[in-house]
Amino acid sequence: MARRLPSAGLALALAVLAGGCGSTVQPLIHASNTGPDPVLPAPAGRRLLPTMDIAPAVGWKAGAMPVPAVGFAVNAFARGLAHPRTLLVLPNGDVLVAETNAPQRPEEGRSLRGKVMGLVMKRAGAGVPSADRITLLRDADGDGVAETRSVFLSGLHSPFGMALVGDALYVADTDALLRFPYVDGAASIDAPGTRVVELPAGPRNHHWTKSLAASPDGRRLYVGVGSNSNVGENGMDEEAGRALVLEVDPAAGTSRVFASGIRNPTALAFNPHDGTLWAVANERDELGNDLVPDYLTSVREGAFYGWPYSYWGRHVDARVQPQDPALVATAIAPDYALGSHVAALGLAFYEGDALPAHRRGGAFVGLHGSWNRKPPTGYQVVFVPFAGGRPARAMEPVLTGFVDADGNAQGRPVGVAIDRHGAVLVADDVGDTIWRITAGEATAPRR
Question: How do residues 377-395 score in pLDDT, each as one tens digit?
């Protein structure tokens, strides 16, 4: 039987939600909290309930859209989707979009904190049922708008990551990596999927998304698996096989830990410059407005990135007891901070020709937006310049305006991908839209 919230606890939770949402401050990312050497303040003291400041999800008004930075233009590639999260561009130019959300997680909402977080996520637009499908979008005439769409795969279980290797389409459901036969130009797949490896899920399944990338030679697949808690508060037995990147041998149907201590690796991509694996990851909450920075990092084989015992290398998180000093001594710092609580959920390296030459080799990142920071931050798409295969300069906002003047979320960016013409596609799970960013002069947004 589900436990009822104590009346005082519920009243406090509702007060926090009512008072901490809808900030009129536009989400900004402080430069000191980004880059290869971010400023890390002292951790904040413990609170009964975490800081919450949610931009309530309202969707886009007629004619409104995100605001591109100078030198860019944006249009709607497809509208009317059901919580689109991740994207995969196929060799023929078709675009696959995972329409998905969290599965049923009966253990996740049992505590006071869990119930409050359920209310928060619903207000933020994450409370809708999962469509559990992948949809194909086709722009046959090349005008930057998809004229047709079809249900490509259905009956999935909270799908997230996708990768195509030859004639095999791999889909990372929340509980398994699946393989489907792919035929170029097909509008749908009717064949059942083959389970390649099982993935951690279960009744709690706190971070349910499973990111996915294929190695450049297609021989290995890499799966990002998030933690089952904020900082191991449910016990480390609950974290078995989590907070890591798996390397999968699809031919053998086996997997091994490639790198660990990454709290929630939400997107994976190989850097075309040198073939190294990179990830964006969401770090821990409830240490203060400016701890801990979410990050972009190369993923080194055998490396440990700290979670849950430490953050940004060897900064110990005293909330985690008992500690593991020997393991912390091996922790390495990520490559590049994206800002605290920005919730990075998309990553795509740019190798196209449609944007100015200085964009080549850099990375576009979707920042879904904070809940554990006041004022809020994120809610935008940014570009991280690279040189020689490494982050080189300060990141730049590319697409903003997702939060309106009243503090409401008209949209929230998630996955990003590069289409066959070199434009940047962005999945917006609150606006139910795929946006397409091209070169051009920005125009004044319509509100």
Answer: 999 999 999 999 999 999 9
Q: Are 390 and 346 in contact (CB under 8 A)?
A: no
Q: With contact defined as beta carbons under 8 Å apart, do 164 and 170 qualify? A: yes
**Structure-token pair, residue 432:** 């139910």
Domain annotation for the chain: domains and CATH numbers: 48-439 (2.120.10.30)
Measured CA to CA, the distance from residue 368 to residue 430 in angstroms comes to: 10
CB 87 within 8 A of CB 96: yes
Residue 369: which region, alpha, beta or left (left: phi > 0; alpha: psi -120 to 50)? left
Q: How far is CA 187 from the centre of its chain?
A: 27
Query: Is 28 in contact with 399 (CB distance < 8 Å)?
Result: no
Q: What is the pLDDT of residue 411?
A: 97
DSSP, collapsed to helix, strand or coil, labels residue 191 as coil
Average pLDDT, the chain: 91
Rounded Cα distance between 221 and 243, Å, is 17
Burial of residue 256 (CB within 10 Å: 0-12, 13-18, 19+) is exposed
User: What is the DSSP code (8-state) at residue 118?
Assistant: H
Token pair of 59, please?
């969707």
Q: Which residues pair with 149 in a beta bridge?
A: 137
Q: Write the pLDDT tens digit of every residue in 300-312.
A: 999 999 999 999 9
101: nearest Cα among 427, 402, 436, 370: 427
